[in-house]
Design a protein that fits this description.
By secondary structure, this protein is mostly helical. 54% of the residues lie in helices and 0% in strands. The chain is built from 5 helices and no strands. α2 packs across α5. The relative contact order is 0.10. The model has no long low-confidence stretch (mean pLDDT 76).
Length: 138
C-alpha cells in the first residue's frame, strides 16, 4: 500500500474510500493456506497403479501380451530401482515399444500386471512363511 500525503482540501473522504478498497482487495488476494499434512506415497508403482487400475485394458495383440508377460516375469523379483534400470534397457527394442509411451493401454497394463505379480509374490512368501524383505525398525 502506497502512502499518500494528506491534503486538507476536502478530498479526505475520497482518499479514505480508496484506501479501504485497496485494503479489501489485498485481503481478498491473499490465499488462505490450510495447515494440512500431506502424506506422500513413496511407492511410485503403487500410486501409478491406483490411478490407472480402472483404466487398464488388456491389449488385443498376442505378441504384445507375450512381451509384457515375459518382461513382468523378468523384473518382478527385482527392486524398483533395478526394475527401472532393466526396463530402460528394453526401450529401444521394437518388441517393447510400449515402454516409451506411458499413456498407452499397453504400458498401463504392463504396470498393473507387474504390481499384481509383485503382490502375489509378497502374499505367497507371507503365507508360506518364507523370508520377508523389510527394514528392521530399531
Amino acid at each position: 500500500m502506497s502512502k499518500i500525503p494528506f491534503k486538507n482540501d476536502g478530498s479526505f473522504m475520497e482518499l479514505f474510500k480508496q484506501m479501504q478498497a485497496e485494503q479489501e482487495r489485498v485481503s481478498i488476494e491473499k490465499p488462505v493456506i490450510p495447515n494440512v499434512v500431506k502424506v506422500e506415497n513413496t511407492d511410485e508403482f503403487e500410486s501409478k497403479q491406483c490411478k490407472t487400475e480402472s483404466e487398464t485394458v488388456i491389449p488385443d495383440d498376442s505378441k504384445v501380451l507375450v512381451a509384457i508377460e515375459s518382461l513382468v516375469l523378468r523384473v518382478s523379483g527385482m527392486s524398483h530401482s533395478l526394475c527401472e534400470a532393466e526396463t530402460k534397457k528394453f526401450e529401444d527394442s521394437i518388441q517393447y515399444w510400449f515402454l516409451t509411451l506411458p499413456e498407452t493401454n499397453e504400458y498401463k497394463f504392463f504396470r498393473k500386471r507387474l504390481a499384481d505379480v509383485r503382490k502375489q509374490k509378497t502374499l505367497g512368501s507371507l503365507a508360506t512363511g518364507g523370508p520377508v524383505h523389510s527394514r528392521a525398525v530399531l
